[in-house]
Amino acid sequence: MTLNIVTDPNPILRKKAALIKDPLAIDVQALIPELIKTMYRDKGIGIAAPQVGKSIRLIALNIKDGHLVLINPRIVSKSIRKELGEEGCLSVPGVFGMVKRHRKVKVEALDKEGKKTTIIGEGLLARVLQHEIDHINGILFTDKLVSKTRENKRY
Length: 155
Ligand code: NI
Fold this sequence. Notes:
alpha+beta, Peptide Deformylase, five-stranded antiparallel β-sheet, three-stranded antiparallel β-sheet, 2 helices, 8 strands, globular, binds nickel (II) ion
């Protein structure tokens, strides 16, 4: 099953999502495969649970060797250096633009089995991690736009 994407200005996208107390809870475990399928269906490179109407701290990333699920992710360190890159978002259809992100971030989270995991991301991976973690804090990339690029085309 795939899920409907919530789009801006739905207020759920602006809420600080709740910490997941039990990563192994049935509702969390049931949501994970659906979130991943929805991400692939819509060709997203990342997705956050609030984007499917669930205000919990769960994100999935589409990375080159598969997908990565992170529960309660948080950035524990980041490079001083930032770089500009183009972003879009499934919840803000048709809008693309340049956003400044830290070039490198270190993220601590729980994996889908509830075990502690650390991810170090650079470049695009760092960008997607920052974009998705913003989602669970109620922040959209359009809040940080430096300039709009194209409209109505997905990247
Ligand atoms: Ni997004």
